Amino acid sequence: MSRVARIAVAVVLGLVAAWFLFDGISNLLAFPQQLEALGVAERTPWVILWASVLLPPLVFAGAAVVARRLPLARYTLVLIVALCVVATSRLSLIAAAGASVSLA
């Protein structure tokens, strides 16, 4: 039963991580086009855009590996903390992308 519960927790929280990944991919595809339409394509923050794509799966997978031998409650907590790290990092990346493209 514990194995099924662990898989269920990983799937449910993995869907949240997948949402962050989807958001990063959509920004990677759409943001450069918006900057090109504004005439500032040379200011595209490629490193920040790629970091927003790579961060969610790497952090979530790392947390799953680190917590794999913990009891279910602690495993769940580690995955939730990993999602919090992804969310706060995502906000920082959005702020950095906006600052690097200021239109002033």
Structure write-up:
It is a single chain. The chain is mostly helical and 104 residues long. The chain is 84% helix and 0% strand. The chain contains three helices and no strands. The longest helix has 37 residues. The radius of gyration is 17 Å and the shape is elongated. 15% of the residues are buried. The mean pLDDT is 93.
Distinctive features:
mainly alpha; 3 helices
Quick synopsis:
The chain is mainly α and 104 residues long.
Q: Which structural class fits the helix and strand makeup?
A: mainly alpha
User: Which percent range fits the helix content?
Assistant: over 70%
Provide the residue-averaged pLDDT. 93
Element pattern in H and E: HHH
Tell me the major beta sheet: none
Q: Unreliable stretches, pLDDT < 50, 5 or more residues?
A: none
Instruction: Please tell me how large the radius of gyration is.
Output: 17 Å
The coarse silhouette is elongated
Put simply, the count of helices is: 3
Strand content: under 5%
Question: In total, how many beta strands?
Answer: 0
Q: Termini distance?
A: 58 Å
